[in-house]
Amino acid sequence: MSDIYFTPGPTALYFTAEEHIKNAIRNGVVSTSHRGQQFKDIYKACADNLKELMNIPDNYHVLITSSANEAWERIIQNCVRSDSYHISNGPFAARFEKVASQLQKRTHDLKLADGGIPSLEQIDVPEKAEIVTICLNESGTGAAFPLALINQIREKYPEKLIAIDGVSAVPVTPVDFTKIDTLYFSVQKAFGLPAGLGIWIANERCLSKAVELANEGLMIGSYHQLPEMVEKAMEYQTTETPNILGIYTLAKVAEDMLTKGVTAIRREIDYKAAILNIAVEEHPQLSHFIENPAYRSKTVSVIKTSFENSKLINHLKEKHIQIGTGYGKYKPEHIRIANFPTHSKEQMEMLVDMISAFKV
Ligand SMILES: *Cc1c(COP(=O)(O)O)cnc(C)c1O
Fold it and tell me: Domain residues for 29?
Protein backbone atom coordinates (compact mmCIF):
# COMPACT_ATOMS: atom_id res chain seq x y z
CA MET A 1 0.00 0.00 0.00
CA SER A 2 1.43 3.39 -0.90
CA ASP A 3 1.30 6.15 1.69
CA ILE A 4 -1.37 8.85 1.77
CA TYR A 5 0.34 12.24 1.58
CA PHE A 6 -1.20 15.09 3.56
CA THR A 7 2.04 17.01 3.11
CA PRO A 8 1.57 20.61 1.91
CA GLY A 9 3.30 19.98 -1.42
CA PRO A 10 4.44 17.93 -3.13
CA THR A 11 1.40 16.08 -1.95
CA ALA A 12 -0.97 13.27 -2.90
CA LEU A 13 -1.64 13.25 -6.63
CA TYR A 14 -5.11 14.34 -7.65
CA PHE A 15 -6.95 11.04 -7.79
CA THR A 16 -7.35 11.09 -11.59
CA ALA A 17 -3.77 12.20 -12.34
CA GLU A 18 -2.20 8.76 -12.63
CA GLU A 19 -4.66 7.69 -15.33
CA HIS A 20 -4.04 10.92 -17.28
CA ILE A 21 -0.28 10.44 -17.09
CA LYS A 22 -0.61 6.89 -18.40
CA ASN A 23 -2.83 8.12 -21.24
CA ALA A 24 -0.33 10.86 -22.05
CA ILE A 25 2.35 8.22 -22.57
CA ARG A 26 0.00 6.06 -24.67
CA ASN A 27 -1.09 9.03 -26.81
CA GLY A 28 2.41 10.28 -27.57
CA VAL A 29 1.94 13.47 -25.53
CA VAL A 30 5.39 13.05 -23.99
CA SER A 31 7.02 12.63 -27.42
CA THR A 32 5.16 15.18 -29.53
CA SER A 33 6.79 18.43 -30.72
CA HIS A 34 5.93 21.57 -28.81
CA ARG A 35 5.53 23.28 -32.20
CA GLY A 36 2.83 20.91 -33.42
CA GLN A 37 -0.97 21.12 -33.30
CA GLN A 38 -1.26 18.48 -30.55
CA PHE A 39 0.68 20.71 -28.16
CA LYS A 40 -1.29 23.82 -29.15
CA ASP A 41 -4.52 21.97 -28.38
CA ILE A 42 -3.13 20.90 -24.99
CA TYR A 43 -2.06 24.44 -24.04
CA LYS A 44 -5.43 25.82 -25.19
CA ALA A 45 -7.35 23.22 -23.16
CA CYS A 46 -5.20 24.02 -20.13
CA ALA A 47 -5.76 27.79 -20.42
CA ASP A 48 -9.50 27.45 -21.18
CA ASN A 49 -10.13 25.01 -18.33
CA LEU A 50 -8.20 27.13 -15.82
CA LYS A 51 -10.09 30.25 -16.94
CA GLU A 52 -13.40 28.52 -16.35
CA LEU A 53 -12.37 26.84 -13.09
CA MET A 54 -10.84 29.95 -11.54
CA ASN A 55 -13.15 32.50 -13.16
CA ILE A 56 -10.28 34.28 -14.91
CA PRO A 57 -11.52 37.10 -17.20
CA ASP A 58 -10.72 36.92 -20.92
CA ASN A 59 -8.24 39.79 -20.87
CA TYR A 60 -5.86 37.86 -18.57
CA HIS A 61 -3.13 35.73 -20.11
CA VAL A 62 -2.36 32.22 -18.87
CA LEU A 63 1.39 31.71 -19.17
CA ILE A 64 3.72 28.80 -18.52
CA THR A 65 6.65 29.03 -16.09
CA SER A 66 8.84 26.47 -14.36
CA SER A 67 7.34 27.19 -10.92
CA ALA A 68 6.25 29.94 -8.53
CA ASN A 69 9.88 30.88 -7.87
CA GLU A 70 10.20 31.83 -11.50
CA ALA A 71 7.06 33.98 -11.33
CA TRP A 72 8.62 36.05 -8.51
CA GLU A 73 11.52 36.94 -10.79
CA ARG A 74 9.39 37.50 -13.89
CA ILE A 75 6.93 39.81 -12.12
CA ILE A 76 9.68 41.97 -10.68
CA GLN A 77 11.58 42.17 -13.97
CA ASN A 78 8.52 42.94 -16.08
CA CYS A 79 6.34 45.03 -13.77
CA VAL A 80 8.72 47.07 -11.60
CA ARG A 81 10.93 49.95 -12.71
CA SER A 82 12.40 50.94 -9.37
CA ASP A 83 10.23 50.39 -6.27
CA SER A 84 8.14 47.53 -4.93
CA TYR A 85 6.00 47.07 -1.80
CA HIS A 86 5.69 43.73 -0.05
CA ILE A 87 3.41 42.51 2.70
CA SER A 88 5.73 40.08 4.46
CA ASN A 89 3.90 37.90 6.95
CA GLY A 90 5.81 34.67 6.55
CA PRO A 91 8.60 32.87 4.72
CA PHE A 92 6.99 32.68 1.26
CA ALA A 93 5.75 36.26 1.36
CA ALA A 94 9.23 37.39 2.42
CA ARG A 95 10.85 35.54 -0.51
CA PHE A 96 9.13 37.90 -2.96
CA GLU A 97 10.80 40.87 -1.28
CA LYS A 98 14.14 39.04 -1.35
CA VAL A 99 13.88 38.36 -5.08
CA ALA A 100 13.05 42.04 -5.69
CA SER A 101 16.10 43.19 -3.77
CA GLN A 102 18.28 40.61 -5.50
CA LEU A 103 17.08 42.15 -8.77
CA GLN A 104 18.23 45.48 -7.37
CA LYS A 105 14.86 47.11 -6.83
CA ARG A 106 14.21 49.47 -3.93
CA THR A 107 11.92 47.37 -1.75
CA HIS A 108 9.48 48.60 0.86
CA ASP A 109 8.59 45.85 3.24
CA LEU A 110 5.66 45.73 5.64
CA LYS A 111 7.26 43.27 8.00
CA LEU A 112 4.70 41.51 10.18
CA ALA A 113 5.02 38.76 12.75
CA ASP A 114 4.81 35.27 11.23
CA GLY A 115 1.17 34.59 10.53
CA GLY A 116 0.19 38.24 11.01
CA ILE A 117 -2.53 39.89 8.94
CA PRO A 118 -2.28 43.69 8.66
CA SER A 119 -5.09 46.19 9.08
CA LEU A 120 -5.84 48.43 6.11
CA GLU A 121 -4.34 51.35 8.08
CA GLN A 122 -1.03 49.52 8.48
CA ILE A 123 -0.73 49.18 4.72
CA ASP A 124 0.96 52.39 3.69
CA VAL A 125 2.25 52.03 0.15
CA PRO A 126 4.74 54.75 -0.80
CA GLU A 127 4.02 56.92 -3.82
CA LYS A 128 7.00 55.47 -5.68
CA ALA A 129 6.08 51.81 -5.24
CA GLU A 130 4.67 50.33 -8.43
CA ILE A 131 3.44 46.99 -7.14
CA VAL A 132 1.95 45.48 -3.97
CA THR A 133 2.73 41.80 -3.36
CA ILE A 134 0.56 39.55 -1.20
CA CYS A 135 0.75 35.88 -0.28
CA LEU A 136 -2.81 34.56 -0.29
CA ASN A 137 -2.06 31.43 1.69
CA GLU A 138 1.18 31.37 3.65
CA SER A 139 2.04 27.69 3.45
CA GLY A 140 4.71 28.17 6.14
CA THR A 141 2.43 29.63 8.83
CA GLY A 142 -1.09 28.70 7.74
CA ALA A 143 -2.26 32.32 7.48
CA ALA A 144 -4.92 33.12 4.89
CA PHE A 145 -4.93 36.69 3.60
CA PRO A 146 -8.54 37.98 3.61
CA LEU A 147 -10.02 38.50 0.13
CA ALA A 148 -11.95 41.52 1.43
CA LEU A 149 -8.66 43.18 2.42
CA ILE A 150 -7.28 42.68 -1.11
CA ASN A 151 -10.36 44.49 -2.45
CA GLN A 152 -9.78 47.33 0.03
CA ILE A 153 -6.14 47.64 -1.03
CA ARG A 154 -7.33 47.87 -4.63
CA GLU A 155 -9.72 50.69 -3.70
CA LYS A 156 -7.09 52.54 -1.68
CA TYR A 157 -4.40 52.21 -4.37
CA PRO A 158 -6.14 51.78 -7.74
CA GLU A 159 -3.05 52.72 -9.73
CA LYS A 160 -0.70 50.15 -8.14
CA LEU A 161 -0.31 46.69 -9.61
CA ILE A 162 -1.39 43.90 -7.24
CA ALA A 163 0.48 40.58 -7.40
CA ILE A 164 -0.88 37.51 -5.62
CA ASP A 165 0.98 34.36 -4.64
CA GLY A 166 -1.83 31.84 -5.04
CA VAL A 167 0.28 28.72 -4.69
CA SER A 168 -1.46 26.66 -2.01
CA ALA A 169 -4.77 28.55 -2.29
CA VAL A 170 -6.06 28.12 -5.83
CA PRO A 171 -8.39 26.77 -7.11
CA VAL A 172 -9.96 26.50 -3.64
CA THR A 173 -9.91 30.19 -2.67
CA PRO A 174 -12.26 32.17 -4.95
CA VAL A 175 -10.02 35.02 -6.09
CA ASP A 176 -11.71 37.99 -7.78
CA PHE A 177 -9.35 38.61 -10.68
CA THR A 178 -10.89 42.02 -11.42
CA LYS A 179 -9.34 43.22 -8.13
CA ILE A 180 -5.81 42.04 -8.91
CA ASP A 181 -3.38 42.21 -11.83
CA THR A 182 -1.37 39.05 -11.62
CA LEU A 183 -1.43 35.70 -9.80
CA TYR A 184 0.82 32.67 -10.04
CA PHE A 185 0.89 29.16 -8.67
CA SER A 186 2.85 25.91 -8.80
CA VAL A 187 0.89 22.72 -9.51
CA GLN A 188 2.26 20.48 -6.75
CA LYS A 189 0.09 22.00 -4.02
CA ALA A 190 -3.70 22.29 -4.26
CA PHE A 191 -3.86 20.91 -7.81
CA GLY A 192 -2.16 17.73 -6.66
CA LEU A 193 0.20 17.28 -9.61
CA PRO A 194 3.89 16.38 -9.93
CA ALA A 195 6.14 19.41 -9.36
CA GLY A 196 7.91 21.21 -12.18
CA LEU A 197 5.26 23.51 -13.63
CA GLY A 198 4.06 26.98 -12.71
CA ILE A 199 1.20 29.03 -14.11
CA TRP A 200 1.51 32.80 -14.33
CA ILE A 201 -1.68 34.75 -14.96
CA ALA A 202 -1.20 38.40 -15.92
CA ASN A 203 -3.47 41.14 -17.28
CA GLU A 204 -3.04 43.93 -19.82
CA ARG A 205 -1.78 46.37 -17.20
CA CYS A 206 1.17 44.08 -16.49
CA LEU A 207 1.80 43.72 -20.19
CA SER A 208 1.72 47.50 -20.84
CA LYS A 209 4.10 48.01 -17.94
CA ALA A 210 6.57 45.50 -19.38
CA VAL A 211 6.39 47.15 -22.82
CA GLU A 212 6.94 50.54 -21.17
CA LEU A 213 10.02 49.30 -19.29
CA ALA A 214 11.45 47.65 -22.42
CA ASN A 215 10.93 50.89 -24.39
CA GLU A 216 12.88 52.75 -21.73
CA GLY A 217 15.76 50.36 -22.37
CA LEU A 218 15.37 48.47 -19.11
CA MET A 219 16.16 44.78 -18.86
CA ILE A 220 12.96 42.69 -18.65
CA GLY A 221 14.55 39.25 -18.87
CA SER A 222 15.73 36.98 -21.65
CA TYR A 223 13.71 34.00 -22.88
CA HIS A 224 10.72 34.77 -20.66
CA GLN A 225 9.94 38.44 -21.28
CA LEU A 226 6.26 39.08 -20.67
CA PRO A 227 5.49 40.71 -24.06
CA GLU A 228 7.05 37.79 -25.90
CA MET A 229 5.39 35.21 -23.63
CA VAL A 230 2.00 36.80 -24.33
CA GLU A 231 2.63 36.99 -28.07
CA LYS A 232 3.48 33.31 -28.14
CA ALA A 233 0.64 32.36 -25.78
CA MET A 234 -1.86 33.89 -28.23
CA GLU A 235 -0.76 31.07 -30.56
CA TYR A 236 -0.62 28.56 -27.66
CA GLN A 237 3.13 28.43 -27.96
CA THR A 238 6.07 28.85 -25.59
CA THR A 239 9.64 30.01 -26.25
CA GLU A 240 11.25 27.03 -24.58
CA THR A 241 10.36 23.36 -24.78
CA PRO A 242 7.95 23.31 -21.84
CA ASN A 243 6.74 20.66 -19.43
CA ILE A 244 4.24 19.21 -21.93
CA LEU A 245 3.28 16.31 -19.66
CA GLY A 246 2.61 18.72 -16.79
CA ILE A 247 0.52 21.06 -18.95
CA TYR A 248 -1.47 18.10 -20.30
CA THR A 249 -2.12 16.67 -16.83
CA LEU A 250 -3.11 20.09 -15.48
CA ALA A 251 -5.58 20.55 -18.38
CA LYS A 252 -7.13 17.16 -17.62
CA VAL A 253 -7.27 17.61 -13.85
CA ALA A 254 -8.78 21.10 -14.24
CA GLU A 255 -11.41 19.49 -16.49
CA ASP A 256 -12.12 16.83 -13.84
CA MET A 257 -12.45 19.54 -11.21
CA LEU A 258 -14.94 21.37 -13.47
CA THR A 259 -16.93 18.17 -13.86
CA LYS A 260 -17.02 17.72 -10.11
CA GLY A 261 -17.88 21.39 -9.68
CA VAL A 262 -15.91 24.01 -7.83
CA THR A 263 -18.77 24.50 -5.36
CA ALA A 264 -18.69 20.82 -4.40
CA ILE A 265 -14.89 20.98 -4.06
CA ARG A 266 -15.10 24.02 -1.77
CA ARG A 267 -17.86 22.44 0.32
CA GLU A 268 -15.69 19.37 0.90
CA ILE A 269 -12.70 21.54 1.82
CA ASP A 270 -14.88 23.37 4.38
CA TYR A 271 -16.07 20.11 5.91
CA LYS A 272 -12.55 18.63 6.14
CA ALA A 273 -11.13 21.85 7.59
CA ALA A 274 -13.92 21.95 10.17
CA ILE A 275 -13.36 18.41 11.47
CA LEU A 276 -9.60 18.94 11.62
CA ASN A 277 -10.02 22.25 13.46
CA ILE A 278 -12.33 20.68 16.04
CA ALA A 279 -9.88 17.82 16.61
CA VAL A 280 -7.06 20.31 17.22
CA GLU A 281 -9.16 22.39 19.60
CA GLU A 282 -10.24 19.33 21.58
CA HIS A 283 -6.73 17.88 21.78
CA PRO A 284 -4.94 18.84 25.03
CA GLN A 285 -1.48 18.79 23.40
CA LEU A 286 -2.25 20.56 20.11
CA SER A 287 -3.14 24.15 19.22
CA HIS A 288 -3.57 26.28 16.12
CA PHE A 289 -0.64 28.51 15.14
CA ILE A 290 -3.16 30.97 13.67
CA GLU A 291 -5.47 31.72 16.56
CA ASN A 292 -8.05 33.85 14.75
CA PRO A 293 -10.24 31.45 12.73
CA ALA A 294 -10.96 34.21 10.20
CA TYR A 295 -7.27 34.29 9.22
CA ARG A 296 -6.71 30.53 9.33
CA SER A 297 -6.03 28.73 6.07
CA LYS A 298 -8.42 25.96 5.16
CA THR A 299 -5.96 24.29 2.78
CA VAL A 300 -2.81 24.23 4.94
CA SER A 301 -3.28 23.77 8.69
CA VAL A 302 -0.32 24.71 10.83
CA ILE A 303 -0.55 23.13 14.27
CA LYS A 304 1.69 23.57 17.32
CA THR A 305 2.56 20.42 19.22
CA SER A 306 3.43 20.59 22.93
CA PHE A 307 5.61 17.49 22.40
CA GLU A 308 8.31 16.71 19.89
CA ASN A 309 6.45 16.71 16.57
CA SER A 310 8.34 13.69 15.23
CA LYS A 311 6.46 11.48 17.71
CA LEU A 312 3.17 12.14 15.93
CA ILE A 313 4.74 12.30 12.47
CA ASN A 314 6.37 8.89 12.93
CA HIS A 315 3.27 7.40 14.52
CA LEU A 316 1.27 8.37 11.42
CA LYS A 317 4.04 7.18 9.11
CA GLU A 318 3.73 3.70 10.59
CA LYS A 319 0.10 3.84 9.53
CA HIS A 320 1.15 4.92 6.02
CA ILE A 321 0.09 8.53 6.45
CA GLN A 322 2.53 11.35 5.75
CA ILE A 323 2.06 14.83 7.18
CA GLY A 324 4.38 17.84 7.03
CA THR A 325 6.85 19.11 9.61
CA GLY A 326 6.93 22.78 10.57
CA TYR A 327 8.40 25.16 8.01
CA GLY A 328 11.84 26.73 8.43
CA LYS A 329 12.57 27.65 12.03
CA TYR A 330 9.36 25.94 13.16
CA LYS A 331 10.47 22.59 11.77
CA PRO A 332 10.58 20.74 15.13
CA GLU A 333 7.57 22.36 16.81
CA HIS A 334 4.80 22.46 14.23
CA ILE A 335 3.05 19.97 12.05
CA ARG A 336 1.44 20.98 8.77
CA ILE A 337 -1.52 19.18 7.24
CA ALA A 338 -2.76 19.80 3.73
CA ASN A 339 -6.45 19.78 2.92
CA PHE A 340 -6.51 19.82 -0.86
CA PRO A 341 -9.19 18.79 -3.36
CA THR A 342 -7.56 15.37 -3.78
CA HIS A 343 -7.95 14.49 -0.09
CA SER A 344 -11.25 12.68 0.33
CA LYS A 345 -13.60 13.21 3.26
CA GLU A 346 -13.00 9.59 4.31
CA GLN A 347 -9.21 10.06 4.30
CA MET A 348 -9.49 13.21 6.40
CA GLU A 349 -11.89 11.53 8.83
CA MET A 350 -9.40 8.69 9.25
CA LEU A 351 -6.51 11.12 9.85
CA VAL A 352 -8.56 13.14 12.33
CA ASP A 353 -9.46 9.98 14.27
CA MET A 354 -5.79 8.98 14.47
CA ILE A 355 -4.74 12.43 15.65
CA SER A 356 -7.51 12.57 18.26
CA ALA A 357 -6.50 9.16 19.62
CA PHE A 358 -2.80 10.09 19.83
CA LYS A 359 -1.43 11.28 23.18
CA VAL A 360 2.17 11.47 24.33
C1 LIG B 1 5.41 26.17 -2.35
C2 LIG B 1 5.19 27.62 -2.39
C3 LIG B 1 5.96 28.48 -3.20
C4 LIG B 1 7.12 27.99 -4.01
O5 LIG B 1 6.73 27.12 -5.04
P6 LIG B 1 7.87 26.48 -5.98
O7 LIG B 1 7.09 25.47 -6.77
O8 LIG B 1 8.89 25.88 -5.09
O9 LIG B 1 8.41 27.57 -6.81
C10 LIG B 1 5.68 29.82 -3.19
N11 LIG B 1 4.67 30.32 -2.45
C12 LIG B 1 3.89 29.53 -1.67
C13 LIG B 1 2.79 30.15 -0.89
C14 LIG B 1 4.13 28.17 -1.61
O15 LIG B 1 3.36 27.39 -0.84
Answer: 17-259
